[in-house]
């Protein structure tokens, strides 16, 4: 029964898209920083051009708050990603692999064990079990980084960062879900099969890049 919940078309489509996206992101991030930066600029452009006009709350679209909201929520996080790439690409590697691990483990734990709804009025599919799975995934990445001495930080610090990344990723996901409810749309777009729009994949990263930027000197 558990396997039947996992082995279906949507799940396989999500996995294949996720693997393809991960290969492109991580290969360019680690070996071709200029190409990675161009990809990030392209993602930013597509989000601003296609997805953000539909997702941004209508009541602020014609006010100065629109510019401020767009700057802090969309533009600045992507610029920080590019900055971190040239500051030390391992920070971006940690950011992306932690968030991707969080999303993957959250999805799997939610599918297998999810019963207790987290915030059903904001995001009906989010469960407490999924959130726990997300923390397990992020903690696993922190443990691997500690074992291979990638960061100078000790494991306790990385464990705390893992908790913060989990909470921030969850908040980013719920915040985008809240915006989608306000705008009465299901996904921010349809460019990624099984995942929705680009912003659906970057929602957790947008908040966590601030976190990584703030702690960058403690990690490296």
TrEMBL record:
Give the top-level enzyme category: transferase
Q: How does it sit in the membrane?
A: Multi-pass membrane protein
* Pfam families per record: CTP_transf_1
| One GO MF term | phosphatidate cytidylyltransferase activity
Tell me the compartments it is located in: Cell membrane
Q: Please state the pathway this protein functions in, per its UniProt record.
A: Phospholipid metabolism; CDP-diacylglycerol biosynthesis; CDP-diacylglycerol from sn-glycerol 3-phosphate: step 3/3; Lipid metabolism
Highest taxon, organism lineage: Bacteria
An example of a Gene Ontology BP annotation on this entry?
Answer: CDP-diacylglycerol biosynthetic process
Task: Output this protein's name.
Answer: Phosphatidate cytidylyltransferase
- Principal localization reads membrane
- Which gene is the coding source of this polypeptide chain? cdsA
Q: Reaction catalysed?
A: a 1,2-diacyl-sn-glycero-3-phosphate + CTP + H(+) = a CDP-1,2-diacyl-sn-glycerol + diphosphate
EC number(s) on record?
Answer: 2.7.7.41
